Automatic annotation (TrEMBL):
It comes from the Bacteria. Belongs to the universal ribosomal protein uL4 family. The keyword RNA-binding applies. The gene is rplD. Pfam families: Ribosomal_L4 (PF00573). This is Large ribosomal subunit protein uL4.
Amino acid sequence: MKVQVKNLAGTAVGDIELSDDIFALPVRSDLLHRMVNWQLAKRRAGTHKTKGVSEISGTGKKPYKQKGTGRARQGSLRSPQFRGGARIFGPVVRSHEYDLPKKVKKLALRTALSAKAAEGKLFVLDAATAGTHKTKELAASLTKLGLGSVIVIDGQTLDVNFSRAAANIPLVDVLPSQGANVYDILRRDTLVLTRAAIADLEARLK
């Protein structure tokens, strides 16, 4: 698959051949769904916690005698039916992460790249570099290119000026090639890849 390459000024500077094994796969929404769920589960803090009976501060004395009061028998004021008592089967600190096969992760990333290409929302940039760290100039360039909600994936290292300028622009993410992931690609409308990013991704995913 051949795609036109442009620079930040919007000028065409050539073409690039994209691998069909990575950018022309059938789009499987079930696979993307599995991958996004895995990513979101992995990043959950899991720090929610409630107190059990043994953790509640209070007396261990029986509230009142067993018989003769006409009330239901009780053994502790720390029981869940009392105000300030414990919560039974409440959440505990834990990890929400689970395993996903490496082959599934790779296939999901290839599918996400193919989905953007199939939608016509894949943009290839010659290089993600900026002469200044000023946000105004980069924002003007992106507006000229018609890029609003966008994720820019560069090579193994990011240009400092470009990443600093993009940091203040809403709905614009900049990632190195090793940080490319399904969730971030899908959450933005347009995917922008540099020549270096394409070389790295094809080497990583083939």
